[in-house]
Amino acid sequence: MLELSFLGSGNAFTAGGRYWSSFLLNGCYLFEAPPTLLPHLKRLGVPPADIRAVFISHFHGDHFLGLPFLLLEYLHLTPRREDLCIVGPPGVEKMIEGVAEAAFPGLSHADAGYRRRYLEADAGREQTVDGLSFQAFRMKHAGENLASFGYRLRLAEKVLAYTGDTELCDELFALAAGADVLVLDCNYSQDKGPEHLSFAEVLEVRKRLPPSTAIILTHMEAEPDVSGLEGVLVARDFATFRFP
Ligand SMILES: [Zn+2]
Ligand SMILES: [Zn+2]
Question: What is the pLDDT of residue 99?
Answer without folding.
Answer: 98
